[in-house]
Amino acid sequence: MKRKQLAPHIHANQPASERYMYVLLAMLPALVGGVFYNGIRVLVLLAVSCIVFFFSDFLSAQTLYPDHVSHVDYSSLVSGTMLALLVPASASIWAVAIAALFGSLLVKQAFGGAGTNVFNPAFAARAFLQVAFPAQMAASELPQEHFWDWLSLLTGKSAGNTVFASESVELLDVFSGRLTGMIGTTSLVLLTMGALILAERKLFRFEAPLTYMAVIVVGYVPFFWSSAGLSAFLLWLVQGGIPFVAIFALNDCTTTPLGQKARLVFGGVTGFLTLILYRFGNGTMAMICPILMMNLMTPIFDYYFRPRAFSKSHWFKEVEK
Q1: In this structure, is residue 262 part of a structural domain?
Q2: Structural domain contains residue 11
Q3: pTM of the predicted protein model
Q4: pLDDT averaged over consecutive 10-residue blocks of the chain (321 residues)?
Q5: Domain containing residue 43: CATH number
């Protein structure tokens, strides 16, 4: 059988399934760290999230779009893994399963499947969890507590422990990920390893993450003047999941703009909204909502920042004529 050739305007000979596999590989260090600190229950949540996402995507695509050629592009596994990394280890299995169904059916398949969804499915599912199960989404267990407690596999860990105070956290904990928080967002070193994997495969687009992080760093002092300090800043950074957002959410090809200028604006506005919501709103939603709000704006960015046609100063004005 002859292999179908890519169109001449496509510069990278890389199918979508291969790109998704590298994204999964980039999330692997954070996943390994999550298992090390939170125990084998992380694997249970990962399995539930990925299985529900995969079969929901496959069965709904077969039902809703029977004329389309079905193929495995691993996008459902990426969404399932990302959702598992965005919840605390004490989250209910049923809550994660329901959130995966929500992300698959209402966020992805309702808009036409992978590549046509408006919102990032994993982050939309995490927002659903925050609204529907807010008590379960409050991470309160200390790392490496009840590591081999088999009874906790189905029921979750005890929520009797308290979150680390910033004064008691060492920089080594911040960089290694030994912090209370979501499973895969608390280690700067492991997340940086994932970013390097994406960069090595030329899947990391720097514009949006750089402007996002620049706005976050510059805006931290004026927004949090009373608690400004290096240790407090790094703790807020990793427990808030900001590096995870910069590396994975802002590199989603479907829900972020295509043009470089558009991605620069996209990242900057996302960072500014994040600071506002962290300062005046809910911390967890401050990580999730800016991404979802800017996902909604992506078609507008793509329209107005579209590369101009040759010899035309404003392509859309010429089209309107």
Answers
A1: yes
A2: no
A3: 0.85
A4: 43 68 94 88 93 90 70 82 93 93 91 84 94 83 61 52 47 81 89 93 90 93 78 85 93 88 93 91 84 92 73 53 49
A5: 1.10.3430
